Predict the 3D structure of the following.
Amino acid sequence: MQLSKRITHLTGGGSDGWDVFYRARAMIAAGEEVTELTIGEHDIRTHASILNAMHGAAAGGHTGYAMVPGTDTLRRTVAQRMTERTGVPTGPENVLITPGGQSALFAAHHAVCDEGDTALYIDPYYATYPGTIRGVGAFPKAVITRPEDAFKPQRSALDQVATGARSLLINTPNNPTGVVYDLETLETISEACKAHDLWLISDEVYDTQVWDGSHISPRGLPDMADRTLVVGSMSKSHAMTGSRCGWLVGPAQAIDHLITLATHTTYGVPGYIQDAAVFAMEQGSALEAEIAAPFRRRRDLAQSILAAQNTIGLIPSQGAMYLMLDIRATGLSGEDFANALLDRHRIAVMPGESFGRAAAGHIRVAMTIDDQAFAAALETLCAFASAAAKKTA
């Protein structure tokens, strides 16, 4: 029996970008010791107070079907959060609770793309973006950025591919680059969306992890609220990756139709998890800062280590839990560098090529292990890069 082309072509017929990660996990399963700097998973677990709230909600009986759009309390809580952070009046009718940010990305593209439409995304990109677009029957097209622009999209690049497209997907703070889009960049994106009549899908799951500058949601820019869908999640801000609780915020008409989609797909998020999310957000910015603190600290640590060498370049690390390192001076591709580093030093990083053409010759390093081990791994990585560069000199 033949499977659908949609499901068999999610990755476009090539790799899904996770080959080095799979290799590292296979080595660990075989009993080898590997330092993993690959995926964005906190090295701390969900805060005990959140787990207590989750347990209390479950023990109290909130284990049946929850309302498909989300509980009224959580939708109101997210709406209040968005009002405060964007300046755009937001009510529960503007909020759909989803099983994590990935589900929200999928729903957002379903909302704005028909079969065969073109949907844009910024390259470098989080590895699931093109497959998410293909999954709704749309055609993914990249907006190529450049390292010399800190991987921020330029108007000329947007105009080059936007004609006839339906949507543009952005991510700030950015995974994989660690760059935070400033107001000028977001105004450029906003003007391009209005000029080409694009929906803007804004992935803001790292909004609490900003080291330099500030997070700005494009939903708050002039005339953008009615054409913007914002993706959010408890995963990164509250170390609740396994709880699978996210949201999509947008115009009420879009959310109303997306509730129908959720009824036919996910059928909502468990109530006790939603209750825990409400509790977590009620703790305010202090808890968010506590969860973000290790990554800010390791970013500063990385900057001092990288300043002591001259082989590897650091793309401005302004937010999120990653470093994007330029290793082109070694003469190796990101893939070759990552595979050789894993083979020789049992350190696993992600090749830049896993995130698109623009990041070729780079690697992404996740700052997700304790400070001492992270510093040791980064120093080894720098020494490995220096030795490789000398061989090509």
Observations:
- DSSP finds 14 helices and twelve strands in the chain.
- The chain has two domains: 5-45+286-388, 64-283.
- The CA atoms of residues 17 and 354 lie 4 Å apart.
- The mean pLDDT is 96.
